Amino acid sequence: MENKVRVGFFVTCLVDSMRPHIGFAAIRLLEAAGCEIVVPAQQTCCGQPGYNSGERKSTVSMALKFLSEFEEFDYVVLPSGSCAGMIRVHYPELFRGDPELQQRFTSLAKRTYELTDFLVNVAKLENVPGNFKGTLTYHDSCSGLRELDVYNQPRALLAKLPGVKIYEMVESTTCCGFGGTFSVKYGELSTRMAENKCQHIAAAGVDAIVGGDLGCLLNIEGRLRRTGDHSTQVLHIAEVLSGLDKDK
Question: Is residue 207 left, alpha or beta, with left meaning phi > 0 and alpha meaning psi from -120 to 50?
Fold first, then answer.
């Protein structure tokens, strides 16, 4: 990027609690793109679990907290299409009765990006630091795809890695069955959807399944392991692109 911009990095709950190395991998990519990265220390949740459960009051509180912590930055970047979709699509809707707040949230939403979308369309990252070698297939998460139009961006970045061969699996854009609270409310249906996804991964015959949302990846990995697949790697795209995985 010609001028260094200040990026507020939102880690997300799952990355922070389950796979923090994904956050460090994403930051490495943003630094490679020439950004100044700030990680607000008091950040917590975007409020999506409460929102999906009908808890509007708590969601509003979380949204206002997010606004106070991230409004100052040129951009906000997240390693999750799900959380980014919450901020970009649903935050402004929550404040339709308050024009001043809605305008502020709308402005913030326009500056909020899922990681690969930012790297391709804003930072225009050319040199990817990763060194992954092998075959992989990509799972498109529902929110990233349908709310943010994230489809070509991760594939364009993966194509910059000379050692990678991408094989599209059947129904790459079909839900894995996680869906946050969906997997809790409809466990049997969720399990069947995850099994279908795992069958498509197996049919692709790849070394790794890659995605941009940790919720999806945890769901897929859990089902793969329960069904006896202990060899297929399950990786967040930030890990693949940055060359920084949990062992480094």
Answer: alpha
